Amino acid sequence: MDGWATMPTMFARLSVPRAALGNLLAKLLMVGLGLAITVVVARQGPKVQGAFALFVAVESALLTLFSGLGLWLARQMSQQGGTPTLRALPMLRGVLRAAVSLGLVASCALLAVSWASHTLPYSQLWLLALAAPFLLLVPTATGLWLGEGRMWPINVAQVAAPALVLLGLLGAGWLTQGAVRNAPLVVLVLTAWVSGKAIVAVLTAVYALRDADQRDEALGVASEGVSRVPSQAAARWQSQWPFIATIGVTNVVSLLNYRASLFLVERFHGLSEVGTYSVSVTVAELLWLLSSSVTVSAYARIGHPDARVAAAMTVQAVRINVLATLLAAPVLLVGAWWALPWVLGEAYQASLMPLAALLPGVAGYAAASSLSAFYTNHLGRPQLSGAIAGLSLCLSFGLGWWLVPLHGAVGAGVASSVGYLGAIAVAYGVFLKHAGLPLRALWTRGAGEAPAPV
Q1: Which residue range is the domain that position 299 belongs to?
Q2: Rounded-to-integer distance, Cα 79 and Cα 230, Å
Q3: What angle do CA 287, 48, 408 make, to 5 degrees?
Q4: Domain for residue 199, yes or no?
Q5: How many CB atoms sit inside 10 A of residue 225's CB?
Q6: 100 located within any domain
Q7: For an engineered disulfide with 57, which of 218, 259, 431, 446 has Cβ 3.0 to 4.6 Å away?
Q8: Angle, nearest 10°, between helix axes 271-284 and 241-269?
């Protein structure tokens, strides 16, 4: 089991220590801001927290449904390797225009749902409708840097959004001092959320356009082989819309895998229990802090056209992700057991047992991000990620439909863990098959190298 080396050794073998650690520091700051947001909202009461959690889940579904544009752009950039052959600016302009157009379509759907609903948070989806055309700019624009393996612009965008949202929430809290905790307070909280996200989205898109223009100018001087036909580069995403749509559907399935349990709890136990359970989910998913940082930093190399390079990078990322989460899970549970009731209030004592039920599955599922990157960025088959997430969703939702009515949030946690663990076992087997690696590749050093093509 010498593959389970020390964490510094594995980071060194990933060959992306600065990028991964830089992204990790950004994620730590982002998570700190996210936890501060959770504290501000949760202290308004479980019902407000529950409405906020469901509203954010709907927003996430919107972003993930159209995330294929950004990942398509990332794949175009990473597949060029060290010899760029396409101009970035026309491609970026094309996908940003598409993002705004799709956002406008989504706005109409959200307005219709908001008009027809009379319960929180669905009656307030008109706020999300106003921001929808802008919110899609961030996951689209950051595809430029993701494909190039440039982390700092992504880090800035990730940190700026929650920072601005937190300022807005603190302002909303100041405006409502002494107010009754009711629907108007929820509206202020949700307004602060969408306003902060929309402002950062516009600024990110503007900077990405400027950065892409400068990149193309530099390449135009350095290489006469770079394509200078904007219309051809811009049209490529349109010719690959099935790939982009598949990514979007896949990511929505993945999101439902993470969030469907919230809607089950609301269905059987109401908004207040959603509030306490959503805190359990938020804390448990802190385990994915490191795994997402490693995967984002290694994304370009996982998409390398050489199967041996891509497979070896994926194995190294999976090793770090799984080991780190297994070590961190018990520490996180002990800390939460002490901190949650003290920081958020006694009502959130009810979050602890669901958290304990969630952690085993969340720890095992840390490998999913790297495996998904291999399916999507290297193989160009995002449907594999969708199938794995769909399997997890079926397992967790099916089991949850039986357990949640009987055991509430604890039942939801158990069902989610079972779904995560079952699906990740299948996901690893699918990866080994496509990479041509033996089962022992995860824990045996040297087994992570795919055989040379014949």
Answers
A1: 1-15+243-454
A2: 19
A3: 60
A4: yes
A5: 9
A6: yes
A7: 259
A8: 130
